[in-house]
Amino acid sequence: MQDADLFMELAGIAGVFVGFGALISVRSGGASGNVEVGMLRGMVSFGSLTIVAALAPVTLARFDITEHGVWALSSAVILIGNVVMLAAMTRTPEYRANRGAGYGGSRWLAVLDLLSVALWILATFLGPIVIALGVAPDLEAGLYFAAVVVLLFQAALLLLTLVYTQQGSARASDRVEPPSAGRAAIA
Predict the structure, then answer these.
(1) pLDDT tens per residue across span 55-64
(2) 181: in domain
(3) How many Å apart are CA 77 and CA 85, to the nearest integer?
(4) Least confident span in 138-142, 149-153, 159-163
């Protein structure tokens, strides 16, 4: 397989996103709102699917399968993973609350979500279907690579959105005041 090292690197990068998701949830004591929980869950899901999708062709290439067979079976992994992930996410109360609330009234989150979903559908549903049908044999490797990159992009986008929508942890009640003895000594 020509791009085995590249797919291994993408799997490693996706593993970092999954690790960041775990770190964020552990360090912050858990996400506090529906939007944060949904984004964290999506980031870990997309990262995990990226790992599996990146490792699938590398693993399948080790067997005596034709190149089209490797790309077709790997595409089936992406399609099945997408369907399972979508079904699991839409069953969560956070997803239903976020869809019902329109992401808390944030227009930029709604627009970003719409654009990323359109890209996700094009690359990770239509691309693998074209590969599985064998319609464009010369483009199979490129279409598959694009699908894996879009899955990774989705995880990165969710991480960035999560980071930029986090509310500051330093509230007025959380600020630490200097000791009063120190103030008296200065005065």
Answers:
(1) 999 999 999 8
(2) no
(3) 12
(4) 159-163
Residue labelled with tokens 């997309």: 46
CB atoms closer than 10 angstroms to residue 93? 10
Tell me how far apart the alpha carbons of residues 22 and 33 are, in angstroms, rounded to a whole number: 16
pLDDT at 187: 45
* Other Cβ atoms within 10 Å of 88 Cβ, number: 12
Torsion, Cα of 102, 106, 111, 115 (10° steps): -80
Residue with more model confidence, 149 or 116: 149
SS (H, E, C) the chain: CCCHHHHHHHHHHHHHHHHHHHHHHHHCCCCCCHHHHHHHHHHHHHHHHHHHHHHHHHHHCCCCCCHHHHHHHHHHHHHHHHHHHHHHHHCCHHHHHHHHHCHHHCHHHHHHHHHHHHHHHHHHHHHHHHHHHCCCHHHHHHHHHHHHHHHHHHHHHHHHHHHHHCCCCCCHHHCCCCCHHHHHHHC
> Domain of 49?
4-167
Determine the pLDDT at residue 81.
95
Q: Which one is predicted more confidently, 70 or 114?
A: 70
179 confidence band (pLDDT: 50, 70, 90)? very low
Residue 143 sits in a domain whose CATH number is 1.20.120
